[in-house]
Design goal:
The protein is an alpha/beta fold. It contains 19 helices and seven strands.
């Protein structure tokens, strides 16, 4: 009866905070143009073109290229895009991921403490965190990637004397890496939690593991050809350098102050260090958090305050929430409930006081969001068979318009209405003389045009 009551309490709490977040956070893109690329990859998977991004789509031809993004999230979002479209589908999937992540946090806290108030408090702390909650109303890959990572750790925690859970933990970790590459850092907590158990699996379980691991390993192998180009090069949007450490630390400190999560982060980290001193289990979570922080500190766009960068705070939010909830549950019973109530209310007041803070980081995306919305509007006004030359062809294909790169041979290959989209990416391109401007958008990063060529 106690387990049933605890489960019902967790489910009810998840429902309440989901309703609150749906009313508070506006659904839509939070990171441009990654979410459009994910949706386009889903479309290409659906059409049998593999997990690439469209660079050309004409009535008689289509060309798709590999990109840096893994194929896991586009594959998971595919049925949602089929049902609800490229704009709504992924955000609805992430809303479900938010509910499941919150429930899993509550389950782990209750499993480790047996304390129902601690489990409910953990759910509320995570779900009411404005920086975390906003991402569960987006179309980004991070919410699903974080859910898989947490599920892998939960399976590892259940694995003692249960080889089936060992297999589950390892498979979930492999799938998680196919959603976000930085989930490779799961090797740290999993190696500490599982120990030698994967090496002592029964032959039947090992056969299942090897058979089911083929697909995620093959997907990563096929993606490896583009890893060097995007992550180990000197590109400003995805490079790694020790020179980024100090600027990233300074920027992130200001982010913690302005977003209201500094007290939560400080208290959670103190709790994590204390719990690590008491139990070996927490060393895995501490190692995971430290490795994640170290990786972001050398990443050129790893700042939490960068456009879309606050999504990197999802994993720290989960680790710190678990630590804080369990630490408060370890206080002597005489003071426990008071400590939980005071701590929870204090942090919630801070969170609710900064509930609109997410809009500041959303505003960093105002120019690409305006261009994105303009393309959706312009696409509806074009006649069937029109072709738009663009630096972002995936955006136009998502909107159902034929598209191609802005190259000299395209006019000769097409016969219908032809347009050129001068985007935020090609601001140095001069406008043609006597351009027939069909659409014009002025942003703080430049003017966007849709020009009729023919």
């Amino acid at each position: 009866m106690s387990r049933l009551a605890s489960s019902m309490g967790i489910v009810l709490t998840c429902c309440v905070v989901t309703f609150h977040n749906c009313r508070t956070y506006v659904p839509g893109h939070r990171i441009f143009y990654d979410e459009d690329v994910y949706a386009n990859m889903s479309k290409n998977l659906d059409g049998g073109f593999g997990g690439g991004v469209t660079v050309l789509w004409l009535p008689d031809a289509k060309r798709v290229e590999r990109c840096k993004w893994p194929v896991g999230f586009p594959a998971a979002a595919l049925p949602w895009i089929r049902m609800f479209g490229a704009e709504r589908g992924p955000s609805l999937l992430n809303g479900l991921c938010g509910i499941l992540t919150s429930a899993l946090i509550g389950f782990l806290v209750f499993r480790w403490t047996g304390d129902r108030p601690a489990a409910i408090m953990a759910i509320l702390l995570f779900a009411l965190n404005p920086i975390a909650a906003m991402w569960y109303r987006s179309g980004a890959a991070d919410p699903s990637a974080v859910l898989l990572a947490l599920a892998s750790l939960a399976a590892a925690d259940l694995s003692k004397g249960r080889p089936g859970w060992v297999v589950t933990a390892l498979l979930l970790a492999l799938v998680a890496v196919n959603f976000r590459l930085d989930n490779v850092l799961l090797v740290l907590p999993l190696s500490l939690w599982l120990g030698p158990r994967p090496l002592t699996l029964p032959k039947s379980h090992l056969a299942v593991l090897l058979a089911l691991a083929v697909v995620p390993i093959a997907a990563l192998a096929s993606q490896s050809s583009v890893f060097y180009l995007h992550y180990l090069s000197s590109r400003s949007d995805s490079s790694f350098s020790f020179s980024s450490i100090l600027p990233n630390i300074v920027t992130d400190f200001h982010f913690f102050l302005e977003s209201g999560v500094l007290p939560f982060t400080s208290a959670g980290f103190i709790a994590l260090v204390w719990l690590t001193w008491l139990e070996a289990r927490w060393l895995g979570l501490l190692a995971w958090l430290v490795a994640q922080t170290a990786l972001l500190s050398v990443y050129s766009v790893g700042q939490f305050s960068a456009p879309g960068g606050s999504r990197f705070f999802l994993i720290p939010s989960i680790v710190l929430t678990l630590s804080l909830a369990v630490a408060l549950a370890r206080i002597q019973p005489r003071y426990r409930l008071w400590a939980q109530a005071i701590g929870f209310l204090a942090l919630c007041l801070l969170f609710l006081g900064h509930e609109k803070a997410w809009q500041r980081w959303d505003d960093l995306n105002s120019a690409p969001r305006a261009e994105h919305d303009a393309i959706l509007h312009w696409a509806k006004t074009l006649s069937p068979g029109s072709v738009v030359m663009s630096e972002t062809p995936y955006l136009w294909e998502n909107a159902g318009v034929f598209t191609a790169p802005h190259t000299p041979e395209i006019p000769a290959r097409t016969t219908g209405p032809l347009y050129w989209h001068r985007s935020l990416f090609d601001q140095k391109e001069p406008l043609p003389p006597e351009a027939a401007v069909v659409g014009n958008l002025r942003t703080q990063h430049g003017d966007v045009f849709l020009i009729r060529i023919r």
